[in-house]
Amino acid sequence: MFARMLAKAFTVGFKGKLLLIITIAFGASLATAMLNVSLDVGDKMNRELKTYGANLQVVPKMDALPAEIDGIDFNPLADRQFIEETELPKIKTIFWAYNIVAFTPYLEATATVADISHPVGVVGTWFNKRLDLPTGEQINTGITQLKTWWQVEGSWVNDEESGSAMVGAGLARQLGITPGQTLQVDVGAKGSAPSLPLKVSGVVSGGGTDDNKIYVPLSTLQQALGLSGKVGKVEVSALTTPENELARRAALNPETLSAKDYETWYCTAYVSAIAYQIEKALPGTEAKVIRQVAESEGIILNKIQLLMLILTVAALISSGLGISGLMTTKVLERSKEIGLMKALGAQGTAVLALFLTEAVISGILGGLLGYGTGLGFAYIIDRTVFDTTLSFKGLVLPLVLLLSVLLTLAGSYSAMRMVIRLHPAHVMRGGR
């Protein structure tokens, strides 16, 4: 009998039930989209933010104090410490190796160029270097992966082309240089240092002091300065987790952490943990966190996650209010049916169980409909915002179904109270 009455409830007044299911699906669809996106939004946002540069800088631990003016390092080479280029592949052997998006070394010097009265910065770096890792893998890394926002007129330099260079847009304008022309550069004091004839492969526009420098293959500048295998610093771009109180304590001194806290910190992709692991992989170096970049990433991620949470909660509240109104209306419409069941001897709990079962089934059907619709929304968000394909998460479906059922039950609360309080005699007399 219970099953027959339940089936009749879904066949009679089908339009009302359909409206209820659609209302549930509205909240479930947004919850599905937000859950699918938010479960890996950190990685997606991190990859987007990594297009704006490095968040770590590795320097020799005992290097002299920096003496940079307008982005040009004026430290005498004799007073500077260096990092061995052959050690750099070890960066990709740390615990969080797969979170290292890109890295590139720099060797900097000052140079004089005809028609320019002031010193010009010359930077030796990797452009798109093929590296053999200690693990046996091979990767490509360099400034092309690290500074993806740079706009290039012409072409990138090949790391094997010792006589080629890239010129910053600001310097190119001063010199009247265009791709294909040759530039004579004297590294160090004019007349007392190596002279490099460089063919300009491209002009780069990146903003700031980068636009006033000359970029050459690392080996070219190493050879000119007699610093074979040496680099001055390394910039690293890593996917990180926003820092919390534990990460900030560890950044001050990891040795003060308890064993449990240390393990949690070390095994979480905090920027301070990655910096610490790089220092261990490259003894004699110091990995400095570029705080402005790292903190901005954390702030942006937290705000996006908060926005997604607010949108989801708002949608669920709206659905809950709609469900409450629809369920109350259904109880009022079926008040005579409820009164008749009670008059014929049905217990209040049995009548309540009938309506609760209807609510649960409606919640499941609405959840399934909302899940399918929400996947479509998630696909659109992934494609338009992050330019990635949708990745299905098995955890989302049971979560959405549970959420839909709970939302339906919560929205049905006032209607269920009416079912319990309804007296058969009042209904028979036309009251409630």
Termini gap: 26 Å
Helix coverage percent of residues?
Answer: 40-55%
Radius of gyration: 33 Å
Lateral arrangement of strands in the main beta sheet: 5-6-13-10-12-11
Beta content: 15-25%
Query: What is the number of domains?
Result: 2
Number of strands: 16
Output the number of helix runs: 15
| Low confidence ranges | none
**Kindly state the mean pLDDT as a whole number?**
81
- Report the major sheet: 6 strands, mixed, barrel
Shape: elongated
The secondary-structure class comes to alpha+beta
Topology, please?
Layout: H1 2-11, H2 14-38, H3 41-49, E1 56-60, E2 68-69, E3 72-73, E4 83-84, E5 100-113, E6 120-125, E7 129-132, E8 138-141, H4 143-146, E9 151-154, E10 164-168, H5 169-175, E11 182-187, E12 195-205, E13 213-217, H6 218-225, E14 230-231, E15 233-238, H7 245-252, H8 259-266, H9 271-281, E16 285-289, H10 291-333, H11 335-343, H12 348-386, H13 396-411, H14 413-421, H15 424-428
Parallel strand pairs: 6-13, 10-12
Antiparallel strand pairs: 1-15, 1-16, 2-3, 4-14, 5-6, 5-11, 5-15, 7-8, 9-12, 10-13, 11-12
Helix pairs in contact: 2-10, 2-12, 2-13, 10-13, 10-14, 12-13
